[in-house]
Design goal:
The chain has 2 domains: 5-165, 3-Layer(aba) Sandwich (Rossmann fold); 168-325 and 353-361, Rossmann fold (3-Layer(aba) Sandwich). It is 31% helix and 23% strand. The chain contains 11 helices and 16 strands. The strands form 4 sheets. Strands 12-11-10-13-14-15-16 form a 7-stranded mixed beta sheet, sandwiched between helices. A 5-stranded parallel beta sheet has the order 1-4-7-8-9, with helices on both faces. A two-stranded antiparallel sheet has the order 2-3. It is globular, with a radius of gyration of 21 Å. It starts with a strand and ends with a helix.
């Protein structure tokens, strides 16, 4: 067993980092693997990274949540909210503070920074690719992320480890624990891809459940650009009848939520019995008013998202919300990598999902 483990949780992911440390500590000898760090700010808004303990010859795992906009810092006497850019800069500061002393530096970044800007369609930046190259240049050995918007981003750094982990098992476990009346067959359950980009996730779950797949595709107005993209005109459904069926919409993130609610509304119009939503990252960037209204109208039954990113207190209080805890999963990934083990069983959860379904049916 390797005991050179060190976990550095940036402020953005500190609470989850503490839980991960506690879990690994119980699995091992009861020691503490959490190394303190901070990124204090000067009055100009500039900052520096400080690591509180020696990292020499340690296998370091730095956990960062680039979506945590609840944190603030002062600049010129005024409060600024931390943006993904700020969190990413702090990550680089902490890597630099390790000063090349660590044996290996690994980054656990659940939401892949700038992953929504993953391709170039005109004269525009490729921010996610630049980030990956920067981390490679800084000596990062491996990066662990979850449900990347485009898993092909791993091709940017082909000589570095890039693990894109699916949280599908945890969603299935939470879903089947919360609801005891799910009929798992082609006549009563269907998985739905809300757009083309979500097809692979939905195909995977439909396959392991042994049920059918439905898909929406976005019709866009390519004659104009609004907020950086072509506006969606409509969501068109392709698939078998959903009349009287439970349906599960599967996607990587909920941002403003407009598209998700539109899809849920269309499924109800098509006769769906209950609409469940699985989304790895719940950003809810436009608040909850539209979700509250949609829930009151009966457009959906429950929303499941993970705690991989910061969860707003208001979200946790919603009766239609279920949080999928991923801390034990992150702990298992770090523990396995530190022991130089294989992540195959953790990143390819099909067999464990089938076992969970089989137990549920019996």
């Amino acid at each position: 067993m390797n005991e050179n483990l060190g976990i550095i949780a940036l402020e953005s992911a500190l609470e989850n980092g503490k839980r991960v440390n506690e879990i690994i500590s119980k699995w091992r000898d009861g020691g503490n693997y959490l190394i303190p760090c901070e990124c204090p700010r000067f009055s100009s808004g500039e900052a520096k990274g400080i690591v509180g303990e020696s990292v020499r010859d340690k296998d370091i795992y730095i956990i960062v949540d680039v979506c945590n906009n609840s944190l603030t810092y002062k600049m010129d006497g005024e409060k600024n909210r931390m943006s993904p850019d700020d969190h990413y800069q702090d990550l680089k500061r902490v890597i630099a503070a390790c000063s090349g002393k660590a044996e290996r530096i690994n980054v656990v970044m659940p939401f892949l920074y700038e992953s929504r800007q993953h391709r170039r369609t005109m004269r525009e930046s490729l921010d996610c690719a630049v980030m990956l190259r920067e981390l490679e240049y800084m000596g990062v050995h491996s990066l662990v992320t979850f449900d990347a918007h485009d898993p092909r981003m791993s091709n940017v750094t082909p000589l570095r480890s890039f693990d894109n982990v699916s949280p599908a098992l945890q969603f299935v476990q939470s879903f089947l624990t919360e609801y005891e009346d799910i009929q798992i067959d082609k006549d009563h359950l269907m998985f739905i891809a809300p757009d083309e980009g979500a097809t692979e996730r939905s195909v995977f779950l439909a396959s392991v459940f042994g049920v059918n797949l439905g898909m929406f595709y976005k019709r866009r107005d390519y004659s104009r650009i609004v907020d950086g993209s072509n506006p969606i005109v409509a969501h068109d459904f392709s698939g078998a009848s959903v009349e009287g069926m439970d349906v599960v919409i599967v996607d990587d993130m909920i941002a403003s939520g407009g598209s998700m609610i539109d899809v849920a509304g269309q499924l109800k119009k098509l006769g769906a019995k209950r609409v469940f939503i699985f989304s790895t990252f719940g950003l809810f960037s436009s608040g909850f008013e539209k979700f509250d209204k949609a829930y009151e109208q009966g457009l959906f039954t429950r929303i499941f998202t993970t705690n991989l990113i910061h969860q707003k207190e208001e979200l946790l209080s919603k009766e239609y919300y279920c949080s999928v805890n991923m801390n034990r999963y992150i702990a298992a990934i770090i523990d396995t990598l530190n022991k130089r083990g294989s992540l195959t069983q953790l990143t390819k959860p099909a067999d464990r999902i089938r076992e969970t379904i089989a137990k549920y049916k019996h």
